[in-house]
Amino acid sequence: MIYRVHHTTRLNYARPVANARFNLRLVPRAWDGHVLHEQQLRMTPEPLMRGENAGPYWVNTTQIGFASPLEALEITSEFTIEIPDGTLAMQDVGLSDVRSAALTTRDLAELSPAPYLFASRLATSDQGIADWGISQMQGKPGVVAAAGALMEAINTQFAYAPGATTSATPPADSFCARKGVCQDFAHVMIIALRSFGIPAAYVSGYLRTLPPPGKEKLVGADAMHAWVNAWCGSELGWIGFDPTNDCIVREDHIPIAMGRDYADVSPIDGTFIGSAPQEMTTSVDVAAIP
Hints:
single chain, alpha+beta, Immunoglobulin-like, C8orf32 fold, 2 domains, seven-stranded antiparallel beta sheet, five-stranded antiparallel beta sheet, 6 helices
């Protein structure tokens, strides 16, 4: 499947701000088998400083800076990417085998399981989530089955409720309320998997959305999405689980970056000098190319 993605972010400030600096994480870090055919990242106005770097997790970061006062900024990311058929044929691996392999690895590379075993900045340890997660995964014969059971539990027990949480809402609060959005569900699943000794990572990206029968696809109606990658042993590697949609990740998911939690892969963050209120709007369109 080949996709064309167009993502525009607009920032507006009530008053000019000074020394604005931003980190942009919008350039895909392609997995093996994914082919990035073309990619552009444009800013209006043009920044005085621009730099590109990769890591320390599976993420590309564009750093930009402005010397002149900034009242508005428009960021447009466009790319075409080819994602192979995601049909899975796998032999599940025992949970104890995966835990043992993860704990004994000495590899600290970007895709090693080691960095994703323990609590992180946003996906902090939580006993309530741990106990609940273990109750959902107990009795499952392998890691894929256990992660799938946890994914299904989140999908059925939690309500998808846009506006109920923000990017700053702690996962424990979303868990207690049993509602939230894809970011919240991903964090809850990550905490639960790590509590069981399974390396788990946060993935940001896009999801192809299909319109209702007889309706045209709305341009700009798509949004960034989040799901979980679970490390399922050296043979299976990382497998994606989407608790929002209760499905294993395949060709309809377009990954951009993978980190320990949202803080590692947030599309945009930064600093400036000033106290002006900020308004941010986004428009995303994901189109499949025949």
